[in-house]
Amino acid sequence: MGKKSKISIPQSGEEFTAEWFTEILQPKYGAAVLDVDQDVIGTGIGFVGEVHRCFLQWDASREDLPTSVIVKVPSKIPANRGLGEGLQLYEREVLAYSKLGNEMGLPLPIVYFTAMDDDPTPWLDKVIEFFFTYLPPKGVNWLTVKFLQLAGKNPNLRRYVLVLEDIDDARPPSQVAGGSLNDALLALTSLAKFHAHHWLKEASIGISPRIWSLDRLPKVWQASYLRNREEFVSRFGTLIGEEKLQILDQAQMEIPELLKPLGEPPWTLLHGDYRLDNIMYRPDGSIVVIDFQILSKGRPGWDVAYFITTALNPEHKIEEDTLLRHYHTVLCAEGVTDYSYDLLLEDVRLTKLLLAHRLVGGRDAFDTDLQDSDETFVDVLVKRVVSWI
Q1: φ, ψ of residue 46 in degrees (nearest 5)
Q2: Is the pLDDT of residue 45 over 90?
Q3: CA separation (Å) from 385 to 89, 235, 357?
Q4: Which of 21, 175, 197, 317 fits a disulfide with 277 by CB distance 3.0 to 4.6 angstroms?
């Protein structure tokens, strides 16, 4: 079901009632939900949404009835909500499941229900694009901060909800601990098939004007870097070293030129956040991929480099060529003939530099605390990405 559904769009746990689940699931299963218990499994600092696991009691006893489901709604924290609205993360994920679905080209959880309100300001994208294109980076920085603040405090926020399969038999690898080489090879196989499935396919990009190209609005990248550089250097300057900081500062001046080739043909649909926390490994050797909030358009080397540098510990660096050749072999076997291995290597090299730059700019947006640790999630990623470069 999509955004035109007349069924209610609950936004908090107390609204996930037996009556609501019956309304959305009875047409499919011919049974009613009698009671609901739930756990919150994702919320707070660093989460742009809330993730609930809901346990369902039915008025029938059948193997096909799901005993638990996952429900995703936007965050209640204004800063997190502002980020989700400002980057159109919620809308993109609802559209990914509702409009692509079985055509995603990646193994997905079962989608039971999706809904969102209509966009009340469809004209706003063009206004933002105009200012973010023609203002200097300092002006873009000021406007970005104000926009995200207002987006999170708007009293008439859009509502979004996703109800998905609970993959309770899967092993979720730890992003912080890092994955194994076998995990990486399996994930890259699916990624190559995904990229090949959407290779230069306008219909995939056309599901929404919010499937942005990687090279869109480079001044936003520069503004984020300006806003966060001082704090980043105070924390990571010694680890990074002066030479690499100079490289990042040089990249800051060249962001439009660095991003441009990654938005040019041959392009494909990108997952945008293809990392271990968004991949679940099942006992039968298959995987399920989740979180489609950053779908975008660009060269496939972006997803590949993003996965390798964030998922694996540096000791796997000696296997990088094996990983890249494996991905490229699968991509070619799926019918892609216009993306050479040398071009993949160049795009991966470029992406590593841009990822390091992005980590500086993303400190205020994605600084998630790790449980029982003085480090943050970004601390771990910075150390890992720097080690891979």
Answers
A1: 90, -10
A2: no
A3: 24, 15, 10
A4: 175
